Amino acid sequence: MAADTGLQVITLPAEIIQLEKALGFIRTIAESAACPNEIEQVIELAVEEIFVNIARYAYPETEPGEVRIGCKLDRTLKHARLIIVFADRGKPYNPLEHPDPDITVPIEEREIGGLGLLMVKRIMDKVQYEYTNGWNRLVIMKSW
């Protein structure tokens, strides 16, 4: 994350109990950027989904890890956008490689999983993933 200039960064244990700290970190930056409340709520929903997935699935239960969250405001004359970067050293996992669940199939016939990531992809303006030097790096962006 050092290459991402202008990011404010927090490092937290990858534990669901840390979710409120992660959301508070993002909330503080969004509010200081005068992010509209409805956009802030969308961003927080995406952050919650991603953070919980990292906490639940990135590391073995016997080896708790950490997650770094970086956030910055990118402002132009007409628009502003919040860029949020999640980085962890858990097992490599590219959520963008997996097919979206078929939401036309009745719920009782659907396979479990994937709806949260589908939601993130739909509510955020951009979602990118890369795995480099042992780090999963997921970037989400939302403009207003």
Q: Strand order within the widest sheet?
A: 1-2-3-5-4
Helical proportion, percent range: 25-40%
For the record, the CATH architecture stands as 2-Layer Sandwich
E-strand count: 5
Beta-strand proportion: 25-35%
> Which fold does the CATH topology refer to?
Heat Shock Protein 90
Instruction: Write out the CATH superfamily name.
Output: Histidine kinase-like ATPase, C-terminal domain
Order of helices and strands: EHHEEHEE
Mean pLDDT across all residues, rounded? 91
Number of domains: 1
**CA-based shape:** globular
Number of helices: 3
Ranges where pLDDT stays below 50 over 5 or more residues in a row are none
What structural class should be given to the helix and strand makeup? alpha+beta
Distance between the termini: 24 Å
- In angstroms, what is the radius of gyration? 15 Å
CATH class: Alpha Beta
